[in-house]
């Protein structure tokens, strides 16, 4: 029935993200489109600095929605992620209401009757009034929907994953004292992971699994083009080619897209028109973050520049 | 196409990607959104919904390419009797005229399959094979031994019987044409065989692998052939990984907990029970302490490989493991197992103490002399060995003292219960001091045993 629609819709996602400065591959755009259509979170995996977090920001900016971010770390628990009771407020209110209590219980003659009267007041202190919503609950309460970014889920404990399951599959949480809170508009959920630990199957099952690796040369050039407008085409080609050569080395930390962008900015700042050994040597620390990596790359610089220049001629 | 996607799920399972029914429902929903006309988008969609890791993505991508390189069966057009009716219309009209006319042979009187073969229309043949494999439900193929039966089923569905009749008739009337037809039939058989092999590769991988693993799991370790050793090791490593996932949860949980109301009130009694100091409930959990003593003598040489591999994985799961290996004398090997890869560690241990004739008595003496102090009331001692001491003094008294000093003493014996106590087996004498004695000859028993040991500490 809809022969043309999906592909154009996916292109629309691509251009929408591009307008926010996020150049997405077709895979990424398809994932974003699908997550919208079948209301599933996206689990984004890949090395650091390839734009996993950026993706969430770009989606939020493109759709004009609020982004709520939950940074995960070891020991994160539901009090910090979901909701907390405002203990201080509860205490304060009890103090203030102490006198009132006498009035309420005034008529009661026996302990039993007093209890009965108290009971009629219900669980005032465990009502919405005293709940402090944390990111996850906030995300559910946004009337216009939002982008919920659960960043670096692999850093959290395994127990925390289980806490997420209800939100991810049904967009709701259950607060024992209050009941179930469902999302007004299901948020777009992006989870990111650096694969520091294996995530549980239950979590993975609830998500679309998107792997963002290092981009292809062309795509990376386009990313640089959109992020660093002042850079010349020759330099762009050469530097991206050079970085692709560097990534073939066995390094502790390979330079990722964020490093590419930083380097491009530095090169523009230094007003370089093309790569030469001198300037690469001076700025290599922007690209590589370990002394050992820099040492390993040093002897290869000249050959890499030559290779990058050559691929430039043919490509 | 829906049918086709379902067949793809089965192929994906074959490629090692776990596709649960719930996942296939999700995938179908996604496919319903994007449609099937754009193959690149379809590929992305299936990869996004089904694969759960980068490895799975690669496997699934390959599987997708292999799967969709096959022509689709044309079931939707004519299902039951496609072999007689349909290729007839396809093949005879355009090609019957050209090629047959050159030979001067009337195409009438021949069956549809013969006509199609003679017309040499490769597309038509490929389509006919595809629809016939659909009719023969090639996607049900599981074992390589089924190749023959599926080939003949497909050929039958294509109308082999009619072709045979045609051939019989033609032998007398037209030998030249018969020759051509026979060659074409041979070529067809070959193509069908290839199709079936491809189907086997696509659909049967999972079953075959499961079956092989199941057999290996239950095979006695000592009787495993050389070429299976690598697979067995992979299997044990898989077991070790499972153990690790199950038992190496961070121990930090201990620190968190619920408020211990009683202790809090008691502690704050001085302030009229206003809770200035809080007390928290703790979950107490023993830290596993394990001492593993492994026989690596000649009589258990086949099995000790696996024992060592298992101890190696134990080192990964549990922090506090001391390992010892012996044949005639005993040495501590914890460090080797911790620092080196399984293969290197095993080679080094075997070269140091391996392959000798076993002397349980003197090895136990060695242990008592040097390492008795490693035992605490929390320690589980695991002995891996066949208890065959070459008729030397077994020194069961030392084992008794070991047992008294430790929490539990587990003996894992690769021999069956029937063999215990016969010949030079000292098992019955040792067994009296053991908390648990188990036969442990297959990977499965090994897994259960270790899982039990680790679980007692959880």
From TrEMBL, chain B:
Residues 69-113 are annotated as: Disordered. It comes from the Bacteria. Residues 83-94 have a biased composition (Low complexity). Pfam families: VWA_CoxE (PF05762). InterPro entries: UCP010256 (IPR011195), Uncharacterised_CoxE (IPR008912), vWFA_dom_sf (IPR036465). This is VWA domain-containing protein. The lineage of its organism: Bacteria, Pseudomonadati, Pseudomonadota, Alphaproteobacteria, Hyphomicrobiales.
